[in-house]
Amino acid sequence: MSSSSSSQSPASRSVSVDPDATLDVSVTINGDTHQLVIEPRRSLADVIREDVGLTGTHLGCEHGVCGACTVMVNGEPSRACLMLAVQADGADITTIEGLANDDGSMHPIQQAMHEAMSFQCAFCSPGFLMSTVALLRDNPSPSTDEIREELSGNLCRCTGYQSIVDGVETAVSLINSGGAA
Amino acid sequence: MTDTQDRQRSGLGFVGQRVKRVEDERFLRGAGTYVADVQPDGVLHAAFLRSPYPHATINSINVNKASRLDGVAKVFTGAELNDVTNPFLPFFMLEGLYTPLYKCMSDDKVRHVGDVVALVVAESRYIAEDALELIDVDYTELPSIASIDDALTPGRVQLWDKANGNVLGDIDASYGNVDEIFAKADHVITRTLDCPRQTNQPMETRGTVVEVDPQTGHLDIHNTSQAPHMLKWATAALLVNEGGFKNLGKFVKNAERRSAFLGAAKSFVTTNKEKLKASDPAGQKSQFEKDKSMVKHQMRMASGLLAADDYPTVKAVDIGGAFGSKGPVTREDIAVAAAAKQLGRSVQWIEDRVENLQDGGQAREERFDVSIAVDADGTLRGMKVDAYLDQGAYPAFPISSAIIPQLWKLYMPGPYNFEAFELNTKVLATNKGRVVPYRGPWANETFMRERMLDIVAGELGMSPADLRAKNVMREGSMPDAFITGPSIDETMSVAKTLDRALEMIDFDQLEEDKAAAEARGHKLGLGIASYHEAAPGPPNFFSSAQPGSDMFLYEDGRAEVEADGSIKMYTSQSPHGQSHQTTYMQVAADELGVPMEDVEIVWGNTDRTQFSFLGTGGSRGGPLGAGVMRMTAREVRNQVVEVAADMLEAASGDIEIVDGNIHVAGVPAKGITYADVAAKVATDKRISSGAVFSEEMKYEGVGNGGWSVATHVAWVDIDLETGMVEIPRYLVVEDCGPIINPGVVDGQVRGGVAQGIGAVFYEKHHYDDNANLLSATYMDYLIPTAMEIPEIDIEHMETLTSGENDARGTGEGGMIGAPAALTNAVSDALGVEVHEQYLPPYRLLELAGVITPD
């Protein structure tokens, strides 16, 4: 460690990039179909944010831990930072922008999170909302423990989670009382 | 009793209500404007080449291959950007402290893993990162300073040539007759307590988007800054790229700028006469003894600022959390701005998570050698502390971690009646990431003191609760001031929170629960911790820390009614999760007598808001930020009432405003609106837009206390087989005075406690013995999830003083109390003394004697 020999940065190694290598991808996002020409290496999250312009999907860690980038891909919650956009060819995707009701009013989960004052900085909120959509679809009346476990793939640094859990529980009662879209 | 207090107490109006967040309308729909969402047409993307070594000299750097890559606009070496920028200068100087100067990039030496060496600007982030791999840097590794012990060892490699070894600061404070108290006390109890490195880790990393106006060259900087005005002026100053004489020539020729400057200078000196007189030149002397170059740089930057015709605009709309880490102006902020200016093109840099873990802000790696003098009956007499603070490589700008000992010296004796106190702090340079403020930057004083109180209680055979109850400052015998200087009033209500917490603990049940846990192969324990914090503190708080340092610490705000009757409130705060928009609307709407939705809060644009040194930080957004909203709104209401009284042919004292209806009391049917009154004034003044009523203020708060206090109680249940911890109950009894919005306060408290739970059981920023960062991903640095954070019970006390009250801050407190309460609970559960803050499963099992340390 204390030797004084010269060394090259371990980061420097040769790469070859063909900027012309692109693929045609067709993807439906929030009901709109987009024909995109994209480099195979680009992540789904970057394409949603930059090419489609839907910036509601957030990137928190870009290594699949924080869950902020969670979107629904063919009905399944997926980490858009870990998925290549070309893998989504032909897929039906829902992002946070597609969650509201057709008349523009908030989805019951959005309403409930508002009621419960669930978020603070809200950077993590798109991921939590999409994960909650999947959770309540698969388990319409989860216990508190189930909620905490199911949402443990999403990190929030502001709230201590209690208000988010309250939000999910509020959503359950809203939906069960007929507030569902 | 004032009108506002009346409403606070009666529950009328918006203040005090759990008003749901206005911010949600955009956030919950994915329509926020975070920095990465700002994507101007044609923007270029930046990526930094960072050092893989903790400590090395840079022999050469070759960017030829990288520069030739398709899509690369420019590769800047450190030397190139350093040529066109000025160094970060110390803003906060103390006797016994040396703050090294450094530039926005490293060109001769790297001092930590992640140190910035080159900057690529390209058409996409992907191409920029490709180019990073084509840059060749020839380094010679140096030995590294990886720990407090390394930094204290004489004769080791130095990070900074002009320093004495790696001890950059040696700072003393003493109150009372310490030697006499220690000689006379029945016992002196001495321990060493440790806290490892943590990192703030907001969910949004740092970022900056520098837009360059192709015509004028004006910079619009969209940034995650907690302190946009500081960033604006720091950027302007650090980008000054002409010599002093040339600048002075320009300034002398610019009559308008000259008179504006001289006027502002005169007003500043007049306003702050006493404070300027009080400032201590010893800090500057200490700095100059090591490095005199500061004056040269100051002259160059000052003359450049005077000569300039245009300064950057900083915009910070929505920020994804910060916890202190986005307060400082960073090297990347300046490097990206310099690159954009050089290229004349807009450039975006969004930090990735690995970069954020390397240098986005770290904190709390501190050690305390502490002695407490105590009598046999449990009377606390004196405290002596030798503290060691691992600052990492580059001191934060504008305020380095050397602010921490200045806060420690005021806080450390806590809410207890110590007669004497002495603190020596050594600020140490190591080859690690930058230390920044982290939610209660001084918080380890509470961990240290409250942990020690339990140890003292154990030595004396007392219960921790009894020791605290005996020594806590109580109404009736409360002194007027702490021995460390700051004033005390009834807001120092720690005793009330402690008494209430003790009432809420069922000690009989606790014994039963302990026995039941034991039967399951678990250990259960309870820990208590109390603290006070200045939020905002009394008027003499900052001058007690450092004479003259209160100069910039007022809060600016402005209220306006425009020609069309619309109401705008301008704040210099930079919200990043604290619900400023909602709470300030509540406060202003109550004062103005209008529905909340009639009030627009304006923030985050330095062209529209007044200067603020701190922006959002220090739990000041409630007391001072909301305070100036209240006071300016009140004044504007008075102006409106004067005109309305004329219009309604009544005395102004008879005018009421309810739900936006301005009327003579008792005659609401004949009311007029803000729009009517504004239109009248606009017509009289022959204007059709802009402000018709306006009030601007520098607010320093009311009262002679401003203390925000709490007692935390933690119950922990430790599984002796796995070392895993559950927290069956967590109680916070807090007193932040009149609450503007309980939903917001509860969120702040719980979020702070969650970070404290993380600090104790999950989070440690690991560097190895050579200062290589081991926890560079979220697989290694563990942020607690919904599985680890329990429900947190909160009890509010809301102590009010006579006269008008400001809200008191509550943003930091959760994190101040939690590590102390949790480590005390672990100690109680296991029946052993705990001397460190970080207690992961393996350590708990070692402490429990289940496994043997390596």
Explain this structure to me?
The complex is a heterodimer of chains A (181) and B (854). Chain A is an alpha+beta fold and 181 residues long. Helices cover 30% and strands 15% of the residues of chain A. Chain A folds into two domains: 23-98, Ubiquitin-like (UB roll); 108-176, [2Fe-2S]-binding domain (DNA polymerase, domain 1). Chain A has five helices and six strands. In chain A, strands 3-2-6-4-5 form a five-stranded mixed beta sheet, with helices on both faces. Chain A is globular. Chain B has 854 residues and is α+β, with helices and mostly antiparallel strands. Among the domains of chain B are: 3-32 and 554-699, Aldehyde oxidase/xanthine dehydrogenase, molybdopterin binding domain (Aldehyde Oxidoreductase, domain 4), CATH 3.30.365; 443-455 and 463-536 and 704-847, Aldehyde Oxidoreductase, domain 4 (2-Layer Sandwich), CATH 3.30.365. In chain B, 34% of the residues lie in helices and 21% in strands. In chain B, β25 and β26 form a beta hairpin. In chain B, α17 (444-460) runs parallel beside α26 (813-830) and α22 (580-592) packs parallel to α23 (621-647). The longest helix of chain B has 27 residues, at 621-647. The radius of gyration of chain B is 28 Å and the shape is globular. Classes of the chains: A alpha+beta (181), B alpha+beta (854). At the A-B interface, β1, α1, α2, α3 and α4 of A face α5, β6 and α25 of B. β1 (6-8) of chain A pairs antiparallel with β6 (136-141) of chain B, so a sheet runs across the interface.
